[in-house]
Specification:
- This protein is an alpha/beta fold.
- 40% of the residues lie in helices and 11% in strands.
- The protein contains 28 helices and 20 strands.
- Strands 6-7-8-9-10-13 form a 6-stranded parallel β-sheet. The chain has a 6-stranded mixed β-sheet with strand order 15-20-19-18-16-17, sandwiched between helices. A two-stranded antiparallel ribbon has the order 1-2.
- Helix 11 (271-285) links the parallel strand 6 (260-263) and strand 7.
- The chain is elongated.
- The two termini are 59 Å apart.
Length: 754
């Protein structure tokens, strides 16, 4: 359906139709104070562009609706596209071509919405009766007799008895206190708007109950359809973080008919707050629930305070255990589900083959395509068991890049043979195993699409990233790889898109390429209007939008989002038994401990061990990190009578660091390299310390807290561990190995040599 609004001249409804973008949604009437019972119905139909005011903010709810006006409302609702075409003349003797509703009456007659009278007239200006209202609406919509038992004393033998019964038995119209229907009574504009709104909502609900998505889409405006394809972030409003459903957020949801939102840590205070927040968001969404997504990869990318802090994907890669990966996915899903979140933007299926990758690194399971595939499939399976949608990323692969697409445009120059054998392998396996959502990468793949365009940033020639490429998304992903699920873009706030293409152009191009959901547009209102305009102008075909929306609705139904029986009180009661539960913490600990990997050892088996009475110096780049390690060391080795000291690694501090380790029996040298290019990291300071400790034959351990590529850049490391994260579970597991409480059984999941 097309969304239109009619311009009104005085108290007479004109027939000059114009596209109604945000104007229809923003129309407010100031004369409904005595028609509160009808306010919701009037505003609902006005937002759809079906009914309109008479000017100056007036709706005139008590005014009688004429037969011409009634069919005009129906035509606008059901056949707006026909209003743009030539119409054949009517045969009604009282409807000339100059009549203001000539086109609408002609279209109504052609489509069987209304008929004339026996004398060949239509009587367009005659007030509509309640009987005619029932007849018009039952002709227009596919209604059948309902289950409610009704009997009106004055309608059984009326010419409109059948349509009155259909409307009444479905609860769409009511009678009066004396048991009458009063079929010949006239109908006001307010009443007609309410009757129409009831029928449309009834039909929509029927479509939802029967999962007839084509029918539901036919009752959705263009605004609603493209709104389903937007998933903005809502981090702030009026300079304050968004942690409740404020008026600004309500306006965004309703004006843009949003189909989803992504939450970030700014939206989250604690578990009870986020549960209340998501519950209220779904209440505000209306009859079509929202996708509510979050990045909860585990490890360095996490959002939930108080939740189980899994050690991350590369830690799972070090365990090589698909059972643990499945358990990780399942518990993550259980916690997200309890919080009212239904999409996890995970797992990462990128294969981190490039140590200089500044953005993926330990977010990946590793550098081996088979390992990434096996653990990725297991994680998806676990999320699915918890009824949470896995959105795997970043297609076709972000693992072998040296540019962060948040900051620039990465280009992967591999040929098709390598892409098929490496980057695409986990995605192909995920598709074969029924993955339902894939996130695109803002990365150019010239081997698939070599198109170039002029950058808006600097006028240079830039390649088309996968997110905007029809050859990548439709040609490769859908047609060649046979993917049937949803395609969601990576964030449109990232520079690889925002700087070069301009958001409105990029939004239109992404949808044309095959994207079903635009994630995080910079200006969601502009993105929404861009898509509305593109559909109405024909730049994006209706059928493309319908296909995307149908996929969205099908997935929402598959994961039970339309079933909203649980109360907020019930959700809050269940939180404590799920979030950070003992069972979940046990999985967290097992992953962390089994992931610890020996990077270097004097004897080839164990790193240097901390011994009774040692003076231990902890060197780290951050005070907080050093204190965390110190606290965990003292807790884990309280029987070793250790003395501890903290020293910070930094530019110009080499002498201080050397003085600190001079008095040490043991040194924990913490290294954290992430979100930068590994080869450009400040390794020289670490090398100086390692060389000094080697000359003194000191016991020490280099503890890799980030990307485990230290041995590529450091020489002669005699003792080292990788724990794959600076979170507490990871570092605690490493400390336990150093004090001899556990063994390091992990296997390095990335290549650090030729």
């Amino acid at each position: 359906m097309q969304l239109k609004m009619m311009t009104i001249c005085g108290a007479v409804l004109g027939s000059l139709l114009v596209w109604a973008g945000s104007a229809a949604a923003e129309e407010r009437f100031n004369d409904l104070q005595y028609s509160k019972w009808a306010e919701d119905g009037i505003e609902y139909m006005a937002k759809r562009g079906t009914v309109a005011g008479i000017g100056n903010g007036k709706f005139k709810p008590g005014g009688l609706v004429t037969r011409a006006q009634a069919v005009t409302f129906l035509v606008r609702e059901l056949y707006p596209e026909q209003l743009e075409k030539q119409v054949e003349g009517t045969t009604y003797s009282d409807v000339s071509t100059t009549h203001p509703f000539y086109r609408e009456i002609t279209i109504a007659a052609k489509n069987g919405l209304a008929s004339g009278l026996p004398d060949g007239t239509f009587r367009p200006d005659k007030p509509l009766s309640r009987a005619e209202t029932a007849a018009f609406l039952t002709r227009a919509y596919s209604l059948s007799e309902g289950k409610q038992s009704v009997h009106w004393s004055d309608s059984a033998k009326h010419w409109a008895a059948a349509p009155i019964l259909i409307m009444s038995s479905n609860g769409l119209v009511g009678g009066y206190w004396d048991g009458t229907y009063r079929p010949n009574q006239t109908v006001t504009r307010a009443e007609y708007a309410v009757f129409m709104s009831r029928v449309i909502r009834f039909e929509r609900q029927d479509a939802i109950q029967n999962q007839d998505w084509d029918k539901l889409i036919s009752y959705m405006t263009v605004s609603e359809q493209v709104g389903q394809m937007l998933m903005p972030d809502i981090r702030q409003w009026n300079g304050k973080v968004t942690t409740t459903v404020n008026e600004g957020l309500k306006d965004i949801i309703h004006d843009q008919d949003l189909g989803g939102l992504i939450l970030f840590d700014k939206n989250i205070v604690d578990t009870r707050q986020v549960t209340s927040f998501t519950h209220t968001l779904q209440t505000e969404a209306g009859d079509i629930p929202m996708f509510l997504g979050i990045d909860q990869e585990g490890g360095v990318i996490k959002r939930i305070p108080g939740g189980t802090n899994l050690p991350g994907q590369m830690a799972l890669g070090a365990t090589g255990d698909t059972g643990l990966a499945e358990a990780a996915g399942k518990l993550t899903g259980e916690e997200l589900k309890a919080l009212g979140l239904n999409i996890n933007f995970a797992p990462v299926l990128d294969i981190n083959r490039n140590p200089d990758n500044p953005i993926i690194g330990m977010r990946s399971f590793g550098s081996d395509a088979d390992l990434v595939t096996q653990l990725g499939l297991a994680t998806i399976k676990g999320l699915r068991q918890s009824n949470v949608i896995a959105a795997v990323k970043h297609f076709p692969g972000h693992g072998d890049t040296m540019v962060d697409s948040h900051l620039g445009m990465p280009v992967l120059t591999h040929n098709l043979e390598q892409l098929n054998s490496v980057e695409l392998k986990p995605f192909r396996a995920a598709i074969e195993n029924g993955v339902e959502m894939i996130m695109t990468a803002h990365i150019a793949f010239p081997a698939i699409d070599n198109e170039r365009v002029t950058s808006l940033k600097d006028g240079s020639s830039v390649p088309i990233p996968a997110t905007l490429s029809h050859k990548v998304l439709t040609g490769l992903l859908r047609e060649q790889m046979g993917y049937k699920g949803l395609i969601i873009s990576d964030a449109f706030t990232m520079n690889a898109i925002a700087e070069h293409f301009g958001e409105n152009n990029a939004v239109e191009r992404a949808v044309s390429a095959g994207v079903d959901i635009i994630l995080m547009p910079k200006d969601s209102a502009a993105a929404h209007q861009t898509l509305v305009n593109a559909v109405k102008s024909g730049k994006i075909p209706d059928e493309n939008i319908h296909a995307s929306v149908k996929r969205i609705l099908e997935l929402k139904a598959k994961y039970g989002l339309f079933e909203r029986s649980q109360t907020l009180a019930q959700k809050l009661t269940e939180l404590n038994g799920i979030i950070g539960s003992k069972q979940h913490r046990a999985v967290e600990q097992e992953i962390a401990e089994r992931a610890v990997t020996v990077l270097a050892s004097r004897e080839g088996v164990l790193p240097d061990q901390i011994q009774q009475g040692d003076r231990v110096v902890i060197l780290a780049a951050e005070q907080e990190q050093a204190q965390q390690l110190e606290k965990q060391l003292l807790q884990s080795a309280n029987n070793l009578s250790l003395k501890t000291e903290i020293s910070l690694i930094g530019q110009g501090k080499t002498n201080e660091e050397l003085q600190a380790i001079a008095q040490a029996d043991y040194v924990i040298l913490a290294s954290y390299q992430f979100r930068n290019v590994a080869s450009e990291f400040g390794w020289s300071a670490y090398q100086t310390l390692i060389d000094t400790m080697n000359r003194r034959n000191q016991r020490y351990s280099l503890m890799s807290l980030g990307n485990p590529y230290e041995l590529i850049y450091l020489q002669n490391v005699r003792s080292g561990l990788a724990v794959y994260g600076k979170q507490e579970p990871n570092t605690r597991a490493g400390i336990k190995v150093l004090v001899g409480q556990t063994k390091a059984a992990g296997k390095l999941p990335v290549r650090t040599g030729p």
